[in-house]
Every structure is written in structure tokens, then in C-alpha cells.
Amino acid sequence: MLSAASIIAGADPAPLVTVTGDLLPDWDIPVNQRLLIISKNQSWLSHGFHKYPAKFFPELPRWAIKRYSTEGETVLDPMAGSGTVNVEALLANRRSVAIDVDPFARLLTRVKTTPLDIAILDRAVAAVLAELDAFEAGGAEARHVAASHVPPFAYQDTWFRPFILEELGAIRAAASRIRDAVSPAEPGPYVDFIRICLSSIVREVSNADNNCTRTVVRQRLQKRVVPGMAIRLFRRMLSVNVGRMRDFVPMAAAAAPVAIPENGDARAIPLPDASIDLAVTSPPYINAVDYPRTHQLEMYMLDLSPPGRPLAEAKRRHIGTEVVRAVDYRTLRTYGLPELDAQVESLYATDPRRAYIVHQYFVDMEANFREVQRTLKPGRHYVVVVGNNIIRNQVVPTHAYLLQVAERVGFRVETYFASEVIRHYIKVPRKERINQDWVLVLKR
Ligand SMILES: C[S@@+](CC[C@H](N)C(=O)[O-])C[C@H]1O[C@@H](n2cnc3c(N)ncnc32)[C@H](O)[C@@H]1O
After folding, report:
1. What does the pLDDT look like over 208-244, one tens digit per residue?
2. Percent of the chain with pLDDT over 90
3. What is the DSSP letter of 50?
4. How far is the CA of 101 from the centre of ligand 1 (A)?
5. Which of 3, 20, 33 lies closest to 439 in space, CA to CA?
6. In 370-443, which ranges are E strands?
7. CB 376 within 8 Å of CB 274
8. How confident is the model over 271-294, as pLDDT tens digits?
9. Which of 80, 87, 286, 345 has its CA 20 to 30 A from that of 260?
10. Which helix (H) or strand (E) holds 133?
11. What SS3 string covers 155-203?
């Protein structure tokens, strides 16, 4: 079996190769190769609809899909996030399945993979813009009515200026009234497209820091938010995203719809045995990105976070979560990999809670590996892109441990190589920032 120490030791002397744009699918990337991939397609087509933390640049899943599957086959992303793998699978004429515990991720993936009828979309957009014109011309009464379309959520005045709430309310009301404009089509996908355009401006017009994974208001930022800003940004985003949809439609019109199960979990995949031809994913980093908190304001505006339902409840289902119970870390846990257990023990001496979070991450990832192993056809691949991080001043070599976990559940390690991270759209907090991802290619 591979040892974490030998994997880490082997990583140092590797040369760096820069690839601009696509990686060639027939390139046998050697173990420990270091790549700097300069993406050309980060905002191409529907990829650009919305920011998402630690989002793939499309070239990496595109390489995996072309290398390890053929047209008509089925690709699974068990932690799909914003659906980059699914968009790429669709563009490459593969069927695909997207699983994510986060309802915002599922909505975004659906919108990014659903080609719309452009004539109907144009009518829907015209109807929305007419409503916004009326709001802007309508004075105090219109603003009062618009404010009533903002859903209830805690600390509204902390998160948003009152005039922004009115503008967001007006956009929500306009989106909900497009039924006649899209008739006879089913309005759902058109409304969802407009909701995603709304969501994509929410952070920018809020009082919260635009660039932090946690949604936080920082007084020292003195963020400038002025009346009319939400409407102006929304109009611009709508126009940009309609353009992206226009380009996407001809490339996606004949594609099979992406399957997005409502209650999927990477540790309990609702698919039959041996039904998948390829799985590609990037799991969360341990304890580094708090997805429900990243999208807290967007979830309010999209009605995805009902009042009274604590955020902690949603967070608990996330692999790598920091929401754990004291009873869980009262005793030191062991996983059964000597190097991992030694590191968890050393963390436990100073921070039992973090030690448990690290331990639990690998327990959860083993559950995921077993599920992917079960759902993959024999001889097929699981490509996992994962970053290491620093916890309590210790580097946790997540990729090295995951390679061992993979072997433990019966995968063969075909190769693994590093991909330098040059830019995340949303910054991961400084202490835990990760500058290199590892691409693990596992074979069932
Ligand atoms: C690094 S992000 C994936 C980003 C994605 N590759 C993209 O391009 O947008 C990890 C995702 O794992 C999801 N996740 C966390 N725990 C999960 C679980 N138990 N089951 C399924 N998805 C989970 C998170 O909601 C998050 O969207």
C-alpha cells in the first residue's frame, strides 16, 4: 500500500508544466507531475452564471470526461457544487448526474444545464424589465410594495441597506410575474434563470465583504452601496447571462437532461450498482469553506433557507463541516491509517475539536469512495480533485491520506498529479489558503 510519507516525499522535485487551455485527453500525465493550467473558459457559456467557492476551471473535468468516457456514457459528480462537471459532460454529449446536499448548488446546476427557448426567454426578460421600469418610476408607493416582497430573515438591516431591500423585493416580484410572458411554456426554468441572475448580485449589493467565503460585514471596508445599484447590476447581469445562454443553447439543445436527485448525499448515492461510467468531483476542503454560510444571503433571496431553520442544521450534512458535537470529540478517535491517526493524535493534544473534524473528514470520504466504487462499472475511473490545508499550523496532506483511503476501499491508484491554483473566485480564508490542488485518478 502507498504510504503518505512516500507520496509527500515524492512530490517535491516535480517540474512545473504550464498548459494554456485544454489538456490533451491522450496525455498520460505522470505521477507527481505539476501543472499550471491557465483557464480560457472560466466564464464561458453557463459556467459564468454565478460565482462558487473552489469551483473547477472547466478544462480539468473536460480532460477527465474526454479521457475516461465516451459519448452517450454517464458521468457522476457526487459533490457537484455549481455543476461544472455536468455542464462539461453535457457539452461532450455525455449523460450526467449531479449530487449535492446544498439546495443552492442543485438549483444553480439545474439552471446551468437547462437550455432555454431563446424567444421565450426574450419575452420573459422584457416582462421583467418592464416591471423594473414601473418600479423605478413608481415612487414611494412602489418602493413600499416592493419591500413587502422581501422574505423574512434575521438581521435584515445588518445585511442590507433599506433601499437595496426594496430593489431586491422589486426584482423578486418581477421574476414571479413572468407566467403570462412565457406561456405556453412551463415558467419554472425561466423563473429559475432569473432567480440565479438575482442571486449573482446579492453579495455585491449587501453590506457583506464581496470576497470572503464567510458572509461577514466588515466595518473597515466602508463598502459603497448606493440607491439604484441592485437594479442596475441586475439589469447588466441579466443581459450578460442571456448572452451566455444564447451561446449555450445551440451547443446543448440535443443533450439529455442532467439528473439532480433532491435528497442525494455523496455518502449514500441514490443510484443502482455499476450504473456509472465515470465519476469526477472536488470534495470540500477540511474545515475551510462553509458553503451554507457562503450563500446565506443568496439562500434567503431564493427562498431556499426557510425562517426558523438554523443554518447549523444544513451545515451538519456537509463533509468537512465544523458543526460537530462536544460528545463527538470527548475521546480520541482512530481511523486505522497509522500516519493519519498519528497526526490526529497530535492535533488532539491542542485542539480536540479540530482533531475530530479531521478524523471525521476521512470517515466521510471513505463512505463516499465506497459509494462511488459501488455505483461505478468495473474498470472505470473516479477522478478526485482535492486540496491540502493547514490546521493548527500543521499541514494535513489530504491527498496523500485519500490515496490510502482509496486503496483501502479497493480502488487502484492510476496516477496523481498537482494542479497549481492561481485564482479562486471567492477567497478561502488566509490561514487555510490552498495554492495547489491534487488530481487523483482512481480505477475500480
Ligand atoms: C468544492 S465544492 C464543488 C465545486 C464544484 N466542483 C464546482 O465546480 O462548482 C464541494 C461541494 O461538496 C458539497 N458537499 C458537501 N458535503 C456533501 C455531501 N455529504 N454530499 C454531497 N455533496 C456535498 C458542497 O455543498 C459543495 O457544493
Report:
1. 988 887 788 887 778 899 999 999 999 999 999 999 9
2. 76
3. S
4. 7
5. 33
6. 376-387, 389-391, 394-396, 412-420, 436-443
7. yes
8. 999 999 999 999 998 876 777 788
9. 286
10. helix 118-137
11. CHHHHCCHHHHHHHHHHHHHHHCCHHHHCCCCCHHHHHHHHHHHHHHHH
Distance 256 CA to ligand 1 centre (A): 23
Torsion of CA 209, 210, 216, 219, to 10 degrees: 10
Q: 408 in helix, strand or coil? A: helix
Q: Is the pLDDT of residue 433 over 60?
A: no
- Report the length, in residues, of the chain: 444
CA 127 to ligand 1 centroid distance, Å: 35
> What's residue 425's pLDDT?
45
Statement: the pTM of the whole predicted model exceeds 0.90: yes
**Quick check: helix, strand or coil at residue 343?**
helix
Ligand 1 atom having least distance to the Cα of 82: 9
Report which residue type is found at 121.
L
Partners of 441 in beta bridges: 383, 415
Q: Which CATH class is domain 4-102+265-287+322-443?
A: alpha beta
Domain boundaries along the sequence of the chain: 4-102+265-287+322-443, 118-252
Q: What would the mean pLDDT of 379-395 be, rounded to a whole number?
A: 92
